[in-house]
Amino acid sequence: MTCRKFYVSRCRLFSIFGSILILVILVVIVSMSVQHGDNTPTTTKGTTTNLKTIVIERCRDYIRTVPQMSSNNCDAIWEAFQNSFLGKDPCNVKVEDYDLFITTVQQDIPCNKSLFWSKTSQIAHDFAKATKCLMTLEDTLLGYMMDGLKWCGQQHSKELNYTSCPGWIECEFNPVRSFWRRASAHFAELACGNVLVMLNGSIDTPFNKQSIFGSVEIKRFDSEKINYISIRVIDSLQDRVSCNSMSLEDLGKILKNASLNFDCKDIDKSEVERCINDPIPYSCDCVNWK
Ligand code: AVW
């Protein structure tokens, strides 16, 4: 009797541990798959379900809330967007294929408002959203409409492909990557006055020449229009000086060669987080960026 009791309780214990283990594995799998900027190619996934509805609704929402944007026509924007990649091999959509689409969207980006980021997506967007003092690409209509979405077409068909689209690194000229390169180039070309760049000091190469910031945006900065570039390297380790690292030295050389004025400063992540949690509306001053 005692022995059976012992057996039953051991059984329960195993099944409880078993369930917890399965739960933990599930949570890890789900959280990995929803991570923005996941590096795993996702060949099995196709175009985001309801892409057209999502894009048009986001577009209408945006132009409703930003009065200066009312000249934009969301149906025309959708048409131009889909014409950029439909009927094309999803590994052969060129950056220039989005040219017409980019010109269909009318938006002025005020000087001194542009925020660029690399490997700091979360904190940069949280900062822009909380303070409303700067704009990232994803705060512009172009970026806002496409943020987090996936799309592709196929050759010899005018339909979206909902079954399978190439992943970000699977082939260079996939429709999503070419779009973000084109939109980023445009956003960088429009930058004027003082601009802020948030880099990640907790990785070996805060400035990565292969990133969109390093390979696209930095090349489109116009020294005639940009007064000053504040490079800010965000880190959770106090006293780390990423501004002195090799990768930042590379960035410095590129900026100097392009006659762009800049400085670099290491900033504690906690300072930015404090500001996000207790912002001064329409002011960037809750962080000492200077
Ligand atoms: P990032 P970037 N799979 O943090 O400098 C899917 O490296 O490149 O910063 N999506 C990806 C992948 C991937 N393997 N790698 C990157 N991405 C996408 C536009 C993903 O959406 C703004 F204006 C990730 O969040 C910034 O100044 C994003 O690319 C600059 O370009 C950024 O990757 C940030 O581009």
From TrEMBL:
CDD domains in the cross-refs: Rib_hydrolase (cd04759)
Molecular-function GO terms, alphabetical: NAD+ nucleosidase activity, cyclic ADP-ribose generating; phosphorus-oxygen lyase activity; transferase activity
Any Pfam family hit: Rib_hydrolayse
Transmembrane segments: 12-34
InterPro entries per UniProt: ADP-ribosyl_cyclase
UniProt keywords, alphabetically: Disulfide bond, Hydrolase, Membrane, NAD, Transferase, Transmembrane, Transmembrane helix
Biological processes, Gene Ontology terms: positive regulation of B cell proliferation
EC number: 3.2.2.6
GO CC, alphabetical: plasma membrane
Superkingdom of the organism of origin: Eukaryota
Gene3D superfamilies named in the record: ADP Ribosyl Cyclase, Chain A, domain 1, NAD(P)-binding Rossmann-like Domain
Assigned protein family: Belongs to the ADP-ribosyl cyclase family.
Name of the protein described by the UniProt record: ADP-ribosyl cyclase/cyclic ADP-ribose hydrolase
Chain's gene name: CD38
